[in-house]
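Request from the bench team (R.T.):
"We need a structural guess for the complex before ordering more zinc ion. Sequence and SMILES attached. Just send the tokens back."

Command: build protein-zinc ion structure.
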Amino acid sequence: MPDAVNQIPAPAVDGTWRRWLQTLLRGALPGRCLVCREPGAGGLDLCPACTAALPWMPHACRRCAQPLPTGDPVCGACLRRPPPLDTVIAAFDYGFPVDRLLPRFKFHRDLAAGALLGACLARATVAAARPVALVPVPLHLARLRARGYDQALELARLLARHHALPLRGDLLHRVRPTAPQSRLDAKARRRNVRHAFAVRCPSEVPAHVVLIDDVMTTGATLHAAAQALRRAGVGRVDAWVCARVR
Ligand SMILES: [Zn+2]
Ligand SMILES: [Zn+2]
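Reply to R.T.: structure attached below.
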């Protein structure tokens, strides 16, 4: 079957995932390539060239999702200073065409791009430890009003559906607005999001949650969210993200 799905380079262990992704996407996303407008193929809104370029994450540190060519489970930085996240799974390295698809999903409400990225993240997390609940990293209300759209919540909805997991969009909230992280260096990012999150009903928290976000850069935002959940009594916090910036 010479179609686009069969041309996606396999990221990992099993050989059945192409069929899985194909089944998932067939009929749902007809049309043109979301990146270059060439005709899509195999039921994907991606042309064969852009599909082949998908930058699936290679073997990575399980605590921070940075690629780890040595094959070790955990990188030196995470061994020296264990982060507040137990595991992080990133579907992609932040490169072409993910660097085009994610901003369109995030800033332009491109739901077809979101559906494609969500399906890829669902595939990347199919063997991951199952949490009690998925928790999207929340936007502050002011940012949500300005943007009209919460990409982490949309991703979390897709994943909750794919994996039949409870979604707890109510659990975590931003208690204060923060400057956009993209303008700040690593140290300023940490300071910017420190104590930015709080848990709404700390009397009944799930034992294990997975935070959902679109991109992990330094990890400052995810770490601040994980610390708030841990302070409220959550025993284990993981994170699943579409892409990791190196
Ligand atoms: Zn294309
Ligand atoms: Zn690490």
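Two things stood out. Residues 1-10 have pLDDT under 50 and may be disordered. Strands lie at 88-93, 133-136, 172-174, 197-199, 208-216, 236-244.
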